[in-house]
UniProtKB/TrEMBL annotation:
Enzyme class: hydrolase
Source organism (scientific name): Atlantibacter hermannii NBRC 105704
Residue ranges of domain Succinylglutamate desuccinylase/Aspartoacylase catalytic in the record: 43-233
EC number annotated for this UniProt entry: 3.5.1.96
Keyword terms of this UniProt record: Arginine metabolism, Hydrolase, Metal-binding, Zinc
Record-listed Zn(2+) binding positions: 53, 56, 145
Pathway it works in: Amino-acid degradation; L-arginine degradation via AST pathway; L-glutamate and succinate from L-arginine: step 5/5
GO molecular function, one term: succinylglutamate desuccinylase activity
Originating gene: astE
Catalytic activity: N-succinyl-L-glutamate + H2O = L-glutamate + succinate
Active site, renumbered: 208
Signal as UniProt keyword: no
One GO biological process term: L-arginine catabolic process to L-glutamate
PANTHER family linked: ASPARTOACYLASE, SUCCINYLGLUTAMATE DESUCCINYLASE
Protein name: Succinylglutamate desuccinylase
């Protein structure tokens, strides 16, 4: 498993595709996909993914460091884990994606997009999840990203909509991992975490850790609390309890870009979780006008440059 990231970025398969240590056995499944199974496994199993967007490199570097700690025996693995570097071609190019946004393609939605490397990769990753999650039992899926823009909460989690409540220990881990805000979707979507949650019942969350930077330009000390919590999770140990609980939000509405006439009334410097007050015009798209409906709403992921039909922003309201 040595140089997993280096092999992935080089587009090379390792010389050995499986191996064993004193604590676990590992199997290279596919480009950027590796399974590690401890000799004495506990639950829940884990899926740790990063690099679904190729310009979001800090979580990839974090995963690489965790794998190196496992290889050296500095973390004693106790849980099965599937490690995924989502979009190797985009990682190599340093681009968010090459053809279309892969994190809109899961749950079979890749079939609605023109065939590309991203549609083929989404299909491969769906099969990898099915193969793994059908075998290991209850699982947590943490899909790690960085945001395009700055944020009033640099570390936050986004939870897919689900019919049953999230487990208390899963939510508690988010606080221990230093997340400052938790955002809950109310509608299904094409994200990797929604797919693992909806199709396999995983406890799933998209972790947003800072702002997108090229490889080598990330200050990982800003996320040391998250990396420490991940280390403890892999080892089956409790993380250091949080002193402060994250704020909670739910999605109030979505801003969608339907035409070339779309205008987002936010500057390029508008950060995630910026507050807007009732009646504020947020965007216009022909005859469609998006306004703040609640007393106060907070914007998440504003992006006027998405493809037609895709989300140009979410509006949130704070909940207890």
């Amino acid at each position: 498993m040595q140089d997993f990231l280096a092999h992935t970025l080089a587009g090379e398969a390792p010389a050995a595709r499986c191996g064993e240590t004193d604590y676990y056995r590992w199997t290279w499944w596919d480009e950027g996909v590796m399974q590690l199974i401890p000799h004495r496994a506990t639950q829940p199993a884990l899926v740790l993914s990063a690099g679904i967007h190729g310009n979001e490199t800090a979580p990839v570097e974090m995963l690489d460091a965790l794998l190196e700690d496992l290889r050296r025996g500095e973390i004693i693995l106790t849980r099965p884990v599937l490690v995924i570097l989502g979009n190797p071609a985009a990682l190599r190019a340093g681009k968010r994606y090459l053809s279309d946004d892969m994190n809109r393609m899961f749950g079979g939605r890749w079939q609605r997009f023109p065939e590309s490397g991203e549609t083929r990769r989404a299909c491969v990753l769906e099969h990898c999840l099915e193969r793994y999650l059908s075998d290991v039992g209850p699982a947590w899926h943490l899909d790690m990203h960085t945001a395009i823009r700055g944020s009033h909460h640099p570390r936050f989690g986004v939870f897919p909509a689900r019919d049953t409540p999230y487990e208390a220990d899963f939510l508690a881990w988010m606080a221990d991992a230093g997340l400052q805000a938790l955002v809950f979707h109310r509608a299904p979507g094409g994200t990797f975490t929604h797919h693992s949650s909806a199709c396999f019942g995983a406890q799933s969350c998209t972790l947003e850790l800072g702002k997108a930077q090229p490889f080598g330009q990330n200050d990982l000390t800003r996320f040391s609390i998250t990396q420490s919590a991940l280390s403890a999770l892999l080892a089956g140990m409790p993380a250091v309890p949080a002193d402060v609980q994250p704020l909670r939000y739910e999605v109030a509405s979505q801003i969608t870009r339907h035409s070339e006439a779309f205008t987002l009334h936010m500057s390029a410097q508008t950060e995630n979780f910026t507050a807007f007050h009732r009646g504020t015009v947020l965007a216009e798209d022909g005859d469609t006008v998006y306004r703040v409906e609640n007393e106060t709403e907070y914007v998440l992921f504003p992006n006027p440059n998405v493809a037609l039909g895709l989300r140009a922003g979410l509006m949130l309201k704070e909940i207890n």
